[in-house]
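re: that complex we talked abt at group meeting.

here r the seqs, copy pasted straight from the sheet so there may be weird spacing, ignore it
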Amino acid sequence: MPKTFAQDSVGLVSPQTLHFDQPLELASGRCLDSYDLVIETYGQLNSDASNAVLICHALSGHHHAAGYHSEDDRKPGWWDAYIGPGKPIDTNRFFVVSLNNLGGCHGSTGPVSINPATGKPWGKDFPKLRVRDWVNSQARLADRLGIEQWAAVIGGSLGGMQAMRWALEYPNRLRHCVVIASAMKLTAQNIAFNETARQAICADPDFRDGDYLAAEAYPKDGLSIARMIGHITYLSDDGMGQKFGRDIRSGSFERGTDEPVEFQIESYLRYQGSAFSGSFDANTYILMTKALDYFDLAREYDNDPVKAFSGAQCKFLVVSFTTDWRFAPERSREIVEALIGADKAVSYAEVESEYGHDAFLIPIDRYYQLFTQYMNGVSADL
Amino acid sequence: MPKTFAQDSVGLVSPQTLHFDQPLELASGRCLDSYDLVIETYGQLNSDASNAVLICHALSGHHHAAGYHSEDDRKPGWWDAYIGPGKPIDTNRFFVVSLNNLGGCHGSTGPVSINPATGKPWGKDFPKLRVRDWVNSQARLADRLGIEQWAAVIGGSLGGMQAMRWALEYPNRLRHCVVIASAMKLTAQNIAFNETARQAICADPDFRDGDYLAAEAYPKDGLSIARMIGHITYLSDDGMGQKFGRDIRSGSFERGTDEPVEFQIESYLRYQGSAFSGSFDANTYILMTKALDYFDLAREYDNDPVKAFSGAQCKFLVVSFTTDWRFAPERSREIVEALIGADKAVSYAEVESEYGHDAFLIPIDRYYQLFTQYMNGVSADL
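got the structure back, here u go
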């Protein structure tokens, strides 16, 4: 008997691979002669192609944002809580496009792909990417899909940076920009965490100076530690305390145990690190964190965010979460202040949550409701 | 011409090694038959031995808290800003004792010492230690020095935990307890950072499952990453931003550089990690962080900190720093509330500072003044 999916699920979905052979000039000065992008779409594009929504993914995300790839899938896509029939990003109304970014490791051209010039995987030689490169490749994707203007470009975290860059680079190609748990640039502390994670990868002897694919090796330990570092910054101190406390797994408190893992939080982190390191490419992780570090929305606008946003034509929704310390509410308020300074229409919500940065992925009543309301407004424009 | 030291410096100092051969029962149930403690002392013990002050060190500290070991030393001891003639811990008035804790790697018996049972270094087989073991060994040290009662036991961070444990375990042997930038127990997030640091060490193939000394190897990369993780948590987000900003070392912002280190903060962290990994023992680092994780002041008092402190006889000074997020002011306020609940004399100061957890080591006017004032009160009791 075939599995029945929930009524508000997009159900079974299939990724498609689109090939692009018009060379893409990159911010680094290098050029990709051709590349693939893997995408998923949910819902139907309407006749005037006015109902398309672009989902931009974060550091470890990919194209599979909603639904299931098979009836046996235990988990749906990473933003299934927010994409589907009747959900905030309502697939009864919107045509939702989700892609794996260039440089990714889930099917789009990236470090694990074959470099046509050598016949071997790109590996560490894959060109450095900046957020604007992703946005440019997404604009090509829009062209391919016949979408002149997005109803909305939406992203959380690194995805929010892409959404903002869209508003600056292609002001006429989006009507709404939704920026969730993001920032106009990283702080020194953010960069420090990313750098330590990269160091953990590079110090793993199986990294082989980035040439692990050729050596049929894999820096699993290094990537696992990198993910553990990242994971701590995605959760809040309080949230971790409520979830794990100081519970130990076994043994006595005085003596410790003879097992290597003693506190529950240790067990959880090791699991997260190990699971991630089995499914993600190390060179991609380095590339994506570098794109994060280098993102600086207003740099070429004399470091003036008001000036940066002055050319934007769309409306904005900005959302932050109280216990997010990776991209704290203060970072979102800076975005809002710049938008107000530039006389743009912006709605802002600071949502109470214990889930830290991860909150943007999690069903939270107030967040769900305000997101729904905002998207109702977006669909009213259709 | 011999170098002249500043008038408020203790000048040239020499460590001494004291041997103890009365077996020390440990919280783990194991026993150390004999051990050495390396100490330094500054100032003179008075005739009734009432002016002695014990300095307890933090995670990476040691006995060399003040003065210089040679005229060529570039840097004085780690707390030289606060120990010396006329300084808050005034060596004209106090006899200051500073030791390297058991399990350390600066001369006291620890993982790098020879295990008499095997004739080889203890390495990973060195017994697990808890804060109470250090306090017990420090009580033996006091006996040896003829100090029945400390004028004050003083410590920052992990050192503050030792000071509090003294107040509970040996209530008649100290008159004042000074607890700076500390906590009654670690949060899940604190443990998570420590665990990730330990994982970085253990993942280094040169760790050899803890037996690197026997293999004449050394997990330098792993320890370096561990230190980088730690270091981020010692500094504040704002402080890092002010010190390093988003400055890059060289190259263009779009292209990045071809150098592996791009942002100034990266260079700084790598330097810190590398310097530390050249001077610290990996097994000691694991042992010390585990002692931190397991410290839980009130656990055996039905998790009631008021009950825990009820037997204390000394007066307390508690100090926290506004931007310390490793042991946030909230953690210090919990100590103060418990002390008030237990009807103990406590002074509390929350000092404005941009230096995060590291503030306790750094000269800061208000901190310096209030510490001086409190210690004046301590010496008035002599």
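couple things i noticed - The mean pLDDT of chain A is 94. The first strand of chain A starts at residue 16 and ends at 20.
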